[in-house]
DNA sequence: CATGAAAATGCGAAGGG
DNA sequence: CCCTTCGCATTTTCATG
């Protein structure tokens, strides 16, 4: 396992700030938290080295890119041992944006985004259910995503 | 609905780059895409104004912050009309990081992150199921998250 | 869409508490 | 050991053609 690291309140505040805006100037955080910009810099580098921070990304609005349909799909495999090969095939579908190995009713649980209900049908029937390892699927269509945030550092 | 906007290949390439690293220097993208840094700047501002880009954030490793447990919970409400009040209460639980209004078996579907199985039990019994509007829940524990990415611009 | 210059920000060495 | 000051390098930003 990756080495655990000591995170103090300053680290947490910096992290929290950057989780809301990855481009917050160090000088601004420095003023807010009463330290020097260089200290902020050092802390960020520390968390980066510890891989607590693994990167940055812009947040986009999928709807404005045409992605109107979001759904979750529970997948049952023919055999539990097919997990890895099924996953490899799922990974090749751009529409599959998240996949989870889960306990309970399904073997794999995925989040899928696509541009229309027609495309969803196509992906589901001709791509997902066409995977040999897939025995059956159950779809949950999301019409709204009222909460979307991250854990509290 | 928000105004749709024309996105060309350059926009798409810039977006794609920034979705992998929100701090990629404009000069670097400029060189890669054979335009000037100022052009990149203009395109980013355009997408920001159109709200295709809504912000930036650092990507963190939840495990290194102690969040070892991730699960999905399907929630059934006593009555469909309780949706808004239930959501307001769910929104107050820090452990609830995502919520979806869905068709099908559940009224609300949430993603939950917490620090241990003990905490999950506590949150589930004393916080989530303590909400008046909640009639029943079904939990799906995730042991692995092998795919986690965004849509393709 | 490019140029170029001014302003802001990031970065790292060296020193102090 | 962690923090700060300080100067240089890089990057962003904007007026102009």
Automatic annotation (TrEMBL), chains A, B:
Entry annotated with the keyword Ubl conjugation: no
HTH asnC-type domain ranges (all copies): 7-68
Organism of origin: Photobacterium rosenbergii
Gene: asnC
Family annotation (PROSITE patterns): HTH_ASNC_2
Keyword Transcription: yes
Protein name: Transcriptional regulator AsnC
One GO process term, biological-process aspect: regulation of DNA-templated transcription
MF terms in GO: sequence-specific DNA binding
Key words of the record: DNA-binding, Transcription, Transcription regulation
């Amino acid at each position: 396992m990756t080495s655990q690291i000591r995170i103090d309140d300053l680290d947490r505040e910096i992290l929290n700030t950057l989780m809301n805006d990855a481009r917050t100037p160090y000088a601004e955080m420095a003023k807010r938290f009463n330290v020097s910009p260089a200290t902020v810099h050092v802390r960020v580098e520390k968390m980066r080295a510890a891989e607590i921070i693994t990167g940055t990304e812009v947040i986009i609005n999928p709807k404005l890119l045409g992605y109107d349909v979001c759904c979750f799909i529970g997948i049952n495999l023919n055999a539990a041992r097919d997990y890895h090969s099924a996953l490899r095939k799922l990974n090749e579908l751009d529409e599959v944006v998240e996949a989870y190995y889960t306990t309970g009713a399904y073997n794999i649980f995925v989040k899928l985004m696509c541009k229309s209900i027609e495309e969803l049908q196509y992906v589901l029937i001709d791509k997902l259910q066409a995977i040999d390892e897939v025995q059956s699927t159950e779809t949950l269509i999301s019409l709204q995503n009222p909460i979307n945030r991250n854990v509290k550092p």
